[in-house]
Amino acid sequence: MTVAYTSELAETLSADVLERLLRYVRIDTQSDRAHAQSPSTPGQLELGRLLVDELLGLGLSDAAQDTDGFVTATLPGNVDGAPVIGLLAHLDTSPDESGASVEPLVHRDYDGGVLTLPRRGTVLDPEHMPELAPKVGHQLVTTSGDTLLGADDKAGMAEVMAAVAYLAAHPELPRATVRVGFTPDEEIGEGAKLFDIEAFGAACAYTLDGSEAGEFTDETFTAASADVVIRGVEVHPGFATGKLVNAARLAGRVLVALPPELTPEATSERDGFIHVYAVESTAGEATIRTIVRDFDDERLAEHVALLRRIAEEVVATEPRAQLEVEVKHQYPNMRTFLDQHPGVSDAAEEALRREGFEPKRVPIRGGTDGSILSARGLPTPNLFTGGHEFHSVREWASVQDMASAAAVAVRLAGVWAERAG
Ligand SMILES: [Zn+2]
Question: How are strands ordered across the β-sheet holding 64-65?
Fold first, then answer.
């Protein structure tokens, strides 16, 4: 039995959302951390050009792609004095798994069992995927087993496009002006930095880049990186007696002294962590690279102070060794900025309710484009897309949930139209 859609609107949008997802995922837009320009990879420009053509076809006559790869377009509103809102999705897919030659598979009427994909022995087992188990009766989209799907964030993109297409075809529905924005290089943390907020001209925006249906995020990690650099004294081991100071061994002692309960693998929900993601070392010099995360700025500072104190204590046992700790701010918790604009999250919750959801506010253990955009002055919370298992060959999406997300985007334009004044 096929599961019912959350609304007639969602059912109407479902075929278009699916068709768009299947089209967009076939263009390889994997971003590249070792980039020299924006966008980091040419596939993002190719997908952007396709989107410009489609937006022009919908009648959004100012649709354009800029030299950095950003695609923007305007769907004019029809209610005087309503604010301008933005709908955003990112063009790139994760560099962590192949995004080339994606061959999406559509599974009608999911029966609740194990889905065995044709390549690499990849299986989707509801026993290990609590979010898959309740999707019995849904139409699911998966990979063929050996690539990403790219639902992160092409599901979000398909939903924005389907919502705008629907609104453009229904001028009788009151709507705020919608600015569409597709951004490059979210996965490598670059796109939002170059986004021209002033030219975009929206009062607020929503990324469609979340996961489970009904979820909404106005809170992300606050994030720093901290590199611990230890310099020892390098001497030929044959002449080392009493002279060699081994930085690698000191680094090992720092690693052992870091609290195991303060790691990503030992924390969840609202707990922060110190994550050692790389150690580079010779006897002469060792670098421990970490990222430090929390939801609270003060606790983030405490984690950084703890890391520093442990490194200082270890290195202090060897007076000839030197220590440097380089801390860099990465992105802030968007909550700090969204709290100043409560209407933005309220409107999202209202749109979710109109689609039949009891909104679930879920803090993201990570960042989004909205973390950077909110800090730069464009309040931007995040809405669900219906995609799951991002950044892996097990990535999948529910057509029912994607249709609901597109319907929420349509309703959002209506909610803001009522706020004219
Ligand atoms: Zn994403």
Answer: 64-65, 71-75, 178-183, 85-90, 204-208, 382-383, 215-217, 360-361
